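Tip: read the tokens left to right.
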């Protein structure tokens, strides 16, 4: 089904409703394509008015899940409910769901205002009310002066604004967005992220947003659902997922980090330590993990000094390990250092550039962090990704 046909299907049928977010539930939903299981028993509850992002790599099942909500795919098992009304057997045209596609899916033969007004016309909204709503949403997306232009006369960012305006013109209780900003440059993506967030807060519509971009997910979401190989790994607020990932996959996918391999043990005084063949450091262990583990520290939590500058002892409540800088990248306000910590592993450190010193590759350094900033994770292998969505 082409994106234009998809959008026409979404634009027909249901009567207009007040823009109040609906509750969305995915209850043990699965989707098989032949012998390939694209989605495996996914259960998600989205609260009314919430902005939830499905985040994951290609092939993780996030887009397939979105397509089942929209009605472009039918679940092999499980139920999908909007305000306790099952959508599984409901035609696309009766779901009253707005959708914004990556490829815009605008009608090329229609002007901006006609594109936006099309779903309203299909819903039998009168001409005067239709014009009022078109004007209202054009104002929201800052495109009033472009209402008579054709899609070919617009930039990529402007076309995406038109697609967003068309999706919200009929005030759907649920808005689905499938990687809508992925084709835009970084600066424009960031501006449109701000606009999308502002429009969501203004309308109160429930939003389910799909992306593989971790920064986009962190910037936009009330909560994030991390997908991997057709399953959900963890759901939480951006701060929860970034600071307290449940496992190695979430830790590595959602942001950079220093990751070390070792084991949890007890020192001579009975305190919990993280131990490798070369060193041991104090840790907190709220999950009561034992045996082999991974220790994770986010880059901005780490301090770095010359190796000989760390010989005077460790501040109370801090850990210190020896490391080597493998490469450094100057990024303006910060520098990004790739480091290794002997055989224990390595990762990324970011240091503010108060006094840039140029390329630090090859330097021996000491890394320090507060014990409370280190997270212990189960030492489970990362699963391989499957191609396609």
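Filled-in amino acids:
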């Amino acid at each position: 089904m082409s994106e234009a046909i998809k959008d026409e299907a979404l634009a027909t049928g249901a009567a207009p409703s007040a823009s109040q977010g609906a509750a969305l539930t995915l209850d043990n939903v699965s989707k098989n394509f032949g012998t390939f299981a694209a989605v495996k028993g996914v259960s998600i509850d989205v609260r009314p008015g919430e902005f939830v992002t499905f985040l994951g790599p290609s092939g993780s099942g996030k887009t397939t899940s979105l397509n089942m909500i929209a009605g472009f795919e039918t679940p092999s098992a499980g139920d999908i409910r909007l305000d306790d009304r099952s959508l599984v057997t409901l035609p696309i045209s009766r779901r009253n769901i707005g959708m914004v596609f990556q490829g815009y899916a605008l009608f090329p033969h229609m002007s901006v205002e006609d594109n936006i007004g099309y779903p309203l016309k299909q819903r039998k909204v009168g001409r005067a009310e239709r014009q009022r709503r078109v004007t209202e949403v054009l104002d929201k997306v800052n495109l009033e002066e472009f209402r008579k232009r054709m899609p070919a006369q617009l930039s990529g960012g402007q076309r995406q604004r038109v697609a967003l305006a068309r999706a919200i013109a009929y005030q759907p209780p649920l808005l689905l967005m499938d990687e809508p900003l992925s084709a835009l440059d970084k600066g424009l993506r960031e501006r449109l992220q701000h606009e999308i967030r502002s429009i969501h807060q203004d309308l109160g519509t429930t939003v389910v947003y799909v992306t593989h971009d971790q920064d986009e997910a962190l910037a936009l979401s009330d909560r994030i659902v991390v997908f991997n190989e057709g399953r959900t790994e963890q759901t939480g607020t951006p701060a929860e997922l970034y600071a307290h990932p449940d496992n190695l996959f979430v830790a590595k996918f959602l942001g950079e980090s220093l990751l070390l391999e070792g084991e949890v043990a007890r020192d001579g005084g009975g305190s919990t330590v993280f131990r490798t063949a070369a060193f041991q450091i104090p840790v907190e262990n709220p999950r009561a993990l034992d045996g082999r583990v991974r220790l994770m520290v986010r880059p901005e939590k780490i301090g770095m000094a010359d190796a000989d500058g760390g010989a005077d002892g460790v501040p109370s409540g801090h850990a210190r390990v020896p490391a080597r800088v493998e490469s450094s990248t100057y990024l303006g306000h910060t520098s990004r250092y790739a480091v290794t910590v002997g055989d224990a592993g390595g990762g990324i450190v970011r240091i503010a550039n108060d006094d840039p010193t140029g390329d630090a590759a090859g330097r021996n350094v000491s890394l320090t962090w507060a014990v409370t900033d280190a997270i212990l994770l189960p030492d489970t292998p990362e699963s391989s990704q499957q191609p396609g969505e």
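Residues 233 and 375 are 17 Å apart (CA to CA). Residues 1-5, 7-19, 384-389 have pLDDT under 50 and may be disordered.
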